Amino acid sequence: MSPFNQTIHNHQTFTLTGIPGMPEKDFWMAVPLCLLYGVTFLGNGIILVVIKVERSLQEPMYYFLAMLAATDLSLSLSSMPTMLSVHLFDWHSVTLDVCITQMFFIHTFGGVESGVLVAMAFDRFVAICFPLHYATILTHGVVIKIGARVLLQSVSGVLPVPFLIKRLHFCHSHVLSHAYCLHQDAMRLACADTRVNSIYGLLAVIFTIVLDALIILISYCLILQAVLGIASREERLKVLNTCFSHICVVLLFYVPLTGMTLIHRFGKHLSPIVHMLMVNIYLLLLPVLNPTVYSVRTKQIWQQIV
């Protein structure tokens, strides 16, 4: 076996990283991590149970909220095994296949979350602009088809990523920047040409995240136009209040994601702690805050929880 092949073989195992520069304090990250995951599972689980049990909440708006809660649970479960193994058990090694599997699920459920937010924006658009036709447009069959399309679109968009990573040779450093595997993080460790990976990653972001954000923006422009046509100020505020929770969740999703993407592309000179904070806000805080926003802001859900 040639030295080059030996090097490639030796780097089929990646090393996960905890807090940059503070490995001795990794154990103390386990407590807040366990709390975050516990709150995530409890909050999203309660929303799923309440929507399933309470018949008055079995409407398209709440079905989409249930999809969002299920996606948040899945996103947390995708990152949890390696996060806890690093900070709780001090296990830093992960094989290439496990790393690829984890990045597939993290990126897939990130795309699903973006698609569900678009579906929720469409729900608000129909409810406000076409209230008399809401029940006929958003039937149970249509909601199921929208959910299936969002899932299929995200899976098909991320599916090439494992094959693009698998074809690369890793002969440089095998230390990842986070306690979980991301495509852009693993890609930078390759000693082969990664232009195909970079181009595909950029196109995937444009045709999923950016396009979804534009659709949401257009939806709210049309909603605002319809709301401004309402004569009563009280009625305008009442209608806009039904969109407030969704707007908060959209900002919670796209602001950290945009910051994470920009820092990865243009902020390579920044401290590793900045990169870690942006990604952790996206993966850890978002699934915690989403159910909190909807539980507090949505009167029907709060009443059923109480």
From TrEMBL:
It is found in: Cell membrane; Membrane. PANTHER family: OLFACTORY RECEPTOR, OLFACTORY RECEPTOR 56B1-RELATED. One of its GO terms (molecular function) is olfactory receptor activity. InterPro entries: GPCR_Rhodpsn (IPR000276), GPCR_Rhodpsn_7TM (IPR017452), Olfact_rcpt (IPR000725), OR51/52/56-like (IPR050402). The chain crosses the membrane at residues 27-50, 62-84, 104-122, 199-227, 239-257, 269-289. Keywords: Cell membrane, G-protein coupled receptor, Membrane, Olfaction, Receptor, Sensory transduction, Transducer, Transmembrane, Transmembrane helix. The keyword Transmembrane applies. Residues 43-294 form the G-protein coupled receptors family 1 profile domain. It is a multi-pass membrane protein. It comes from Suricata suricatta (Meerkat). This is Olfactory receptor. Putative odorant or sperm cell receptor. One of its GO terms (biological process) is cellular response to lipid. Signal peptide: none annotated. GO terms for cellular component: plasma membrane. It holds the Pfam family 7tm_4. PROSITE patterns: G_PROTEIN_RECEP_F1_1, G_PROTEIN_RECEP_F1_2. Belongs to the G-protein coupled receptor 1 family. It comes from the Eukaryota. The keyword Transmembrane helix applies. The lineage of its organism: Eukaryota, Metazoa, Chordata, Craniata, Vertebrata.
